[in-house]
Design goal:
By secondary structure, this protein is α+β, with helices and mostly antiparallel strands. The protein has helices at 14-17, 21-39, 59-69; strands spanning 2-4, 43-51, 79-83, 88-91, 96-99, 115-119, 123-131. Helix 3 links the parallel strand 2 and strand 3. Helix 2 (21-39) crosses helix 3. The protein starts with a strand and ends with a strand. The structure holds zinc ion. Zinc ion binds at residues 91, 93-94, 98, 107, 109-110, 112.
Length: 133
């Protein structure tokens, strides 16, 4: 059974994105615990996360933090799948959407900084694969 926790599961505000990955992992586990109470499941088999390229979250560090916290928790033994949407930005001078691998980088076409980020900034739990209860 897969349950979706929705777009607003985790706050997208910059303050949270600058938090250390361990804090994010703790927040994810709290979210899982809350979902377990609401949906009455016992075990998580897979945890699917979206970590945008521009989200400011280090995926390797986040994975490590989750794996460190997993023993004894509901996500023990769960597969952790991290999707990493590419960073995208709208460049007004070019009139185009351009790829952006890091915040603060110039437009790869014109070298300008008049960019508005349009993709790859999200950080959220997409869904959980669960059983039991
Ligand atoms: Zn440009």
């Amino acid at each position: 059974m897969a349950i979706s926790l929705g777009e607003d599961s985790l706050c997208h505000c910059l303050e949270k994105l600058r938090m250390h990955e361990l804090s994010l992992a703790v927040e994810i586990l709290e979210l899982v615990d809350r979902a377990a109470k609401d949906s009455a499941f016992l075990k998580v088999h897979a945890l699917r996360l979206e970590v945008g390229q521009l989200s400011g979250v280090e995926t390797a560090a986040l994975r490590f933090a989750l794996e460190s916290l997993a023993p004894g928790s509901r996500i023990e033994g769960a597969r952790i799948v991290i999707e990493e949407p590419k960073g995208m930005a709208w460049c007004a001078p070019c009139g185009k959407t351009v790829p952006l691998s890091m915040r603060g980088e110039p437009c790869p076409r014109c070298g300008g900084h008049d960019l508005q980020i349009t993709g790859g900034q999200g950080f959220r739990v997409i869904d959980l694969e669960v059983s039991g209860g």
